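#struct-help
A.M.: can someone run this one for me? Single chain, 309 residues.
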Amino acid sequence: MRLAYTAVDPRSTESSRSSQRVRIEPRSLSEIGPGEMTGAVLQLASDLQRTLDTDALIAGLHEALRPRLAHQGLVYEHPREQIRSSHGTPAANQVSYEIVLLGEALGALTLMRHLPFSEEELSRLEALLCALVYPLRNALLYRRALETAYKDPVTGVNNRLAFDQALARETELSQRHATPMSLLLLDIDHFKQVNDRYGHVFGDCVLRAVADVVLGCTRGSDIVFRYGGEEFALLLSNTDLAGARCLALRICEAVRTTNFLHEGVEVKLTVSLGVAERRPGEAGVALVQRVDAALYRAKAGGRDRVVED
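D.P.: on it. Structure tokens below:
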């Protein structure tokens, strides 16, 4: 087993933000230090194993370190996983550690405070960080497993399971705060003919391309799902019917004007959309039924259009 940390060295007299790096080699419990420190590391490791949520884990680390090492703030970042967990307040003096387990980067941890860190404090911190490695690795594995469970493997957008949970959540929030919420259902027109003529491999490419077009039209707060087959759903929080209609028309136009190529030959595609805004007191399933009926009317009315309820 190999544990390694890379640290920004705050011991440089030139700058507390020095880019110089210190390599911390793995240590066994006997090498960590006196029995008191070994006990502290084991206790911290036990405490951190209580959660698999990365933000809760880092928050727990922040609170657990405070009585052992005075600091104002702590930030954990993992760019590849799109994670940033910040606790406390920023300060000028910083020490940063890149956490690596068996060659896998688990992210970077930065502690901040107003006063410089002493040699003894850094040694204590580096010992305590040994307690973070496995709980952090487990939390990241759990996060990836959840993301896999809620993602459509073909398009990369959220799947039907994620939709059912998000619909219940967004409906409850809309009801509690009396805020607007809208739903779009989108169906790729004549998708079966695309599969029959060009094959399922190209059909999957079409699904991915349409998902990308839809994502390019949405805001950060809009949630996109593959609802099933060639259908997509969009949950729009804090969006009334006028805003939902505007987005639906934009998506319809974007797909219509996108060039889809199969072996150098252009394939034209269109989509049909149903749109509705949630009514006061309306359950999520009732909203879905109304939007689904609107989508049916859009397809029956000639496709390549938006119908609202």
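A.M.: thanks! The chain has ten helices and 13 strands.
D.P.: also worth noting: The chain has a mean pLDDT of 88.
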